[in-house]
Amino acid sequence: MAGRIAFQGExxxxxxxxxxxxxxxxxxLPCPTFQDVIDAxxxxxxxxxxxxxxxxxxxxxxxxxxxxxxAGLHIVDESFVRVHVNLLGVRGAQLSDVTEAYGHVxxxxxxxxxxxxxxxxxxxxxxxxxAAREVAEAGDKTRGALASELAASIYGLDVLARHxxxxxxxxxxxxxxxxEPDRSRRGGGxxxxxxxxxxxxxxxxxxxxxxxxxxxxxxxxxxxxxMVGGSFTATEFYADIEGHPEDPGVARALEELRFxxxxxxxxxxxxxDELRRSQKA
Length: 281
Hints:
Number of helices: 9
Oligomer: single chain
CATH class of the largest domain: Alpha Beta
CATH superfamily of the largest domain: ACT domain
């Protein structure tokens, strides 16, 4: 094994699947919370951290964006994981036996239509893989888990229904983070740059800060805001753009951005995931 990579959840979680997909040669390290994942990487218990940041159906994963600026880590890669939700049950159970299905609060809305159709009550669990483990331990045919096929194989469960997610393109984006930055061009394809910033307290500061990206032909794929420290007056912005900081257009846009901001920090420079590139095509 070439080091360890930490993820949130238990073995069999979608974060575990992301680790297998993005870093198959590394040993996965399960952690209870996102903060524990960050702590493991900071302390050296893990070499990399795998963090879920958004889902195409559910939206932004709560708390992650507020944790990233304080993490002291750097984004070195992204991984788009196609999330297939499956209904798992104990050996010998049938779909008709299941009256309750347990899953993370993020996963339940992704298969709400299926649960409603089959009159199955959704129950919140702290983690999908944990739900699978607890269903296996309970041995109750009326209880199911909403999890991956990887979790089914780990905990000895049957797949009662495959790919029950409501949206056919259900995808979660993960970020791979490291203690050391890597701003080299790599991967042979386009690069992405992620940064956070706070605008200065002047009229139209955000509009002016964003103008440099438009005039320099830089595509901004994400711009999100969130409050800092519970204050309604301190707002931080998180942005993803296509390109490398050394690209002339990107360099000019970032220079103009810094003129209108009180704080600007590049969080990472990394290759665009192949799924991002294929969707754009």
